[in-house]
Design brief:
The chain is α/β, with parallel strands linked by helices. It folds into two domains: about 10-15 and about 235-350, Aspartate Aminotransferase, domain 1 (Alpha-Beta Complex), CATH 3.90.1150.10; about 20-225, Aspartate Aminotransferase, domain 2 (3-Layer(aba) Sandwich). It is built from eight helices and twelve strands. The chain has helices at about 20-30, 40-60, 75-80, 100-110, 215-255, 280-290, 310, 330-350, and strands spanning about 10, 65-70, 90-95, 115, 130, 150-155, 170-175, 185-190, 255-260, 270-275, 290, 320-325. The strands form three sheets. It has a seven-stranded mixed β-sheet, sandwiched between helices. A three-stranded antiparallel β-sheet has the order 9-10-12, with helices on one face. Strand 3 (about 90-95), helix 4 and strand 4 (about 115) form a beta-alpha-beta unit. The longest helix is centred in the last third of the chain and has 40 residues, at about 215-255. The two termini are about 30 Å apart.
């Protein structure tokens, strides 16, 4: 059986950054020690972990002692949100938030938590708001919730590097894969001054479970630095690529809606709805030609379930594709993508 190699990846699940991949085997060899102990290998590892936290501190604009690593990234939603809630709180969220937020809302409503699908309310000092600066499925930016009076959980899990946190942030989370870091590593920040309580059963003063992989934590710091440098270098080119794909879909293929076309969006993400096309078949046919794109919900890797984000926006959930533009993508990748997209779309429509 022959397998067509993927030569052009436009999926959000991107390969590990080359510089991080080069480091990974080395840090696994050095990452066996316990940083809490006092012998020299442990001390060295502790210093490396602190340096990694300083990297995140500089990139995210938070203090290094507010940063914690997670071995199970989705746990960050529960820790970041539930840790802020009290019995008197109202939780404000959006229909376009990630599936873990909706799962948490559904669970907490069963415990008589008040929750409202609204991001425009001012709330009170007891309330909590879920804020998503960039939607990971559409790339649409949302302005800072400066007028919200309560505590803000910031979901920074979209692909790419982030802008500054809002002044009223209380907790925030990131996932390593969004900057081409290793899977299985998340980062959560908990503001020192905020009234946060560990919502998990616990026996010590640790704010989060200490079960993360130390080699992955060190590797993801290298990935973040390298990805940020690549991002800054490729930003202008990436914006041009996104505009080029958008124009081609609308003008050369036709009956295509680019989601958020008239709004501020991430240069890395493009979501489109193509009329008269089975998006699952299109993704499969492109894959057979060595080109990888996404469709379906962005909340779970590999999920082809209809997008709850598009449904919440009142848009069609059929014919949807998502294209992620990595800094390493070049002009020939774009030419290849557009050629095969047009050919396969016309085949389906005919």
């Amino acid at each position: 059986m022959s397998v067509v190699p993927i030569t052009s990846s436009f999926q959000s699940e991107s390969p590990l950054h080359p510089k991080a991949a080069k480091l990974l085997s080395e840090v696994f060899e050095r990452g066996w020690a316990d940083p809490a102990k006092i012998h020299e290998p442990s001390r060295q590892l502790g210093r490396l972990l602190q340096e990694a936290k300083e990297t995140f501190s500089a990139a995210f604009g938070v203090r290094s002692d507010e940063i914690y690593f997670l071995g199970e990234p989705p746990l960050g939603f529960h820790l970041g949100i539930s840790g802020l809630l009290t019995p008197e709180s109202c939780l404000y969220f959006s229909g376009t938030d990630r599936a873990p937020v909706h799962a948490l809302v559904s669970h907490r409503r069963g415990q008589n938590l008040s929750a409202l699908e609204s991001v425009s309310e001012k709330g009170t000092s007891r309330d909590v708001l879920v804020y998503q600066p960039i939607n990971p499925e559409t790339g649409i930016f949302s302005p800072h919730p400066e007028n919200f009076l309560g505590k803000v959980f910031v979901d920074n899990t979209a692909y790419g590097v982030r802008a500054e946190l809002p002044e009223n942030w209380a907790t925030a989370m990131w996932q390593s894969r969004s900057w081409q870091g290793p899977a299985g590593l998340g980062v959560i920040a908990i503001k020192n001054e905020t009234s946060w309580r560990n919502p998990l059963p616990h026996t010590d003063a640790s704010k989060v479970p200490q079960s993360f992989s130390i080699p992955l934590a060190l590797t993801t710091a290298v990935a973040l630095e390298s990805f940020t440098a690549d991002y800054n270098e490729a930003r202008t080119r990436t914006i041009e690529f996104r505009e080029r794909i958008s124009r081609y879909l609308i003008q050369k293929i036709g009956d295509v809606s680019v989601v958020g076309e008239d709004l501020q969006t991430s240069p890395y993400l493009l979501s489109a709805i193509i009329a008269g096309v089975d998006s699952e078949k299109l993704v499969s046919d492109l894959n057979a030609r060595g080109i990888a794109i996404d469709t379906g919900s962005a909340c779970m890797s590999g999920s082809l379930a209809p997008s709850h984000v598009l449904a919440a926006m009142g848009l069609s959930v059929t014919g949807n594709i998502r294209i992620t533009l990595h800094p390493q993508i070049n002009n020939s990748d774009i030419e290849n993508l557009l050629h095969h997209l047009r050919e396969l779309i016309l085949q389906q429509r005919n």
